[in-house]
Amino acid sequence: MSDLSGRTTIVVGASRGLGHGIATSLAEAGAPVVAVSRSTAEFTAPTNGEGSIRVETADAADASSAGRLLDLHEPDNVVLVAGANPHMRPLQHHTWESFSATWETDVRITFHWLREILLKPLRPGARVIAISSGAALAGSPLSGGYAGAKATQRFITGYAQDEAQRAALDITFTSVLPRMTPATELGRTAARAYAVRDNQTQEEYLRHMGPTLTPQITGEAIVNLIRTQSTDIAPAYLLTGGGLKPLN
């Protein structure tokens, strides 16, 4: 898996933030990338001239999108990054609609795509990475159902791995849980909200989180994970500015 040339990777949610960094890093590593997003995304050409990025505009949460794009592009790898930005407010100020928004997007996307990947199935040796959140471990009291939704993404990914093994499919599923980062719109919004809640400045709040996780660091981590032997891949990873840490 060290040579990614000719191994198409679909990145779902590639228009901005960590997804954009993942798509860019994969192309720089030589992979043909299909960047899926609801809005038009722009990418610079890979500097090594080997990889490529093709943009597909689609709603990843639509039940028909996963099957259609998998059939169209026949990918070797799939990375799921897309999701909603939760409303940041205390529990009593949420409505059910705002509380459950990430269940209706993030969890829905993971369910539809992993289901279609198992039904198709992808080619032997395929890698499927679902981007969850560090909130699945630590909680997120201002973001409604976000932490529970991200934990469910991790559970669903584990269920998919079990089903792949039961069906003797040579497909590796794993989830990656990035720590909050001011490098994304979601992270900046959350950091502001929690800083106010804790009577801190945003800079003070972020200082306690350690090295900043950037889209570039995220992209390089995903490239390295795809290049890792399947037998060495953990069921889940925490991702910080310092890199990947396996989770049991």
TrEMBL record:
SUPFAM superfamilies tied to this protein: NAD(P)-binding Rossmann-fold domains
Molecular function GO labels: oxidoreductase activity, acting on NAD(P)H, oxygen as acceptor
Keywords: Oxidoreductase
Pfam families named in the record: adh_short
Family: Belongs to the short-chain dehydrogenases/reductases (SDR) family.
Protein name: Short-chain dehydrogenase
UniProt lineage: Bacteria, Bacillati, Actinomycetota, Actinomycetes, Kitasatosporales
